[in-house]
Specification:
This protein has 288 residues and is an alpha+beta fold. It has one domain (2-88, 156-272). The protein has helices at residues 2-11, 15-22, 89-103, 114-123, 127-140, 151-154, 184-188, 197-204, 218-227, 231-238, 245-259, 264-272; strands at residues 45-51, 55-60, 70-75, 81-86. Helix 9 runs parallel beside helix 11. The longest helix has 15 residues, at 89-103. Residues 108-112 have low confidence and may be disordered.
Length: 288
């Protein structure tokens, strides 16, 4: 974790986020583990914890292109399908308070549970907001859509709050979804795990589909794009399905060296230091 600690410090992540990742803030129940274990994750993911499935929750950062950093859940067994759960750490902290409130139900009167308020304080959620969230949790359970009345959600709702299939009215973020326009610039700024299988299939049929959407072997695509100086394309290929972890580690090292993007070398050292095959196949077979 030392390498990731240095990376999180470089990126100036909120201290509470780093403390959660390092295990110095205890998370509410619901089967989350910190520091995170190794089931294999993509370079774009900066993990905070691991949960059931297994699944990772953490920051999602594209080091090239125009996309903003956000927070996601990545399901390992579903081709590492990646979905946005929060737009910033404050939203994620509120979602954690929901879990804390549900775990503490029945212990004290609503709004008076000291464990919930203590966790909220460490995660940066004030007492008044904790009380609002406890009321929401009584009605909505753990559904993120229940948090939409909170100002920090109403102004910038994450995709997790849009529960009606095909209706993304009011979404102002830039995370890919099934209702977005499929233009060339949008597709160049996304990778395959960010799209559903149906959307990936649609994209692959388009005449302007990026090459990482039309292959099961990313290494040759990455090499070609890197050789052309297309660092954005090489990065999106590196984060798309069709890699063995060992060759992806070499590719990330090379991209960091050639592009000289500040901080990318820190990511390469941190990501390559994770035993991605620990809970899976032999190292030479571990893949995503």
């Amino acid at each position: 974790m030392d390498e990731y600690r240095r990376l999180y410090d470089f990126l100036r992540l909120p201290q509470a986020a780093t403390d959660i990742a390092l295990g110095t803030i205890t998370l509410p129940p619901y089967n989350r583990e910190t520091p995170f274990d190794a089931y294999g994750f993509l370079p774009a993911l900066l993990p905070l914890w691991i949960g059931d499935g297994p699944s990772y929750t953490g920051y999602w950062k594209h080091w090239f292109g125009t996309r903003r950093m956000t927070l996601v859940e990545v399901t390992v067994e579903n081709n590492r399908r990646t979905q946005e759960v929060a737009r910033d750490f404050g939203q994620l902290a509120c979602e954690l308070v929901v879990y804390a409130a549900r775990a503490a139900r029945g212990e004290r009167a609503r709004g008076q549970t000291p464990q919930v308020k203590a966790f909220g304080a460490r995660a940066g959620v004030g007492e008044d907001e904790v009380e609002q969230i406890e009321q929401i949790a009584q009605e909505w359970g753990i559904e993120p859509a229940g948090l939409l009345p909170l100002p920090r959600f109403a102004s910038a709702p994450p995709l997790a709050c849009f529960t009606t299939e095909g209706d993304y009215t009011g979404y102002t973020g830039d995370f890919p979804h099934d209702g977005m326009a499929l233009d060339e610039d949008t597709l160049r700024n996304m990778c395959t795990p960010e799209a559903s299988r149906e959307l990936n299939a649609r994209i692959a049929t388009l005449p302007f589909a990026p090459p990482w959407f039309t292959t099961d072997e990313q290494a040759p695509v990455f090499r070609q794009l890197l050789g052309e100086g297309d660092y954005l394309g090489a990065w999106m290929s590196l984060n798309s399905n069709g890699w063995r972890f060992l060759e992806a580690m070499d590719a990330l090292d090379e991209l960091a060296r050639v592009s000289a993007v500040p901080g990318l070398g820190l990511l390469a050292a941190a990501w390559s230091g994770v035993p991605h095959e620990k809970n899976g196949p032999a190292p030479e077979d571990a893949a995503y």
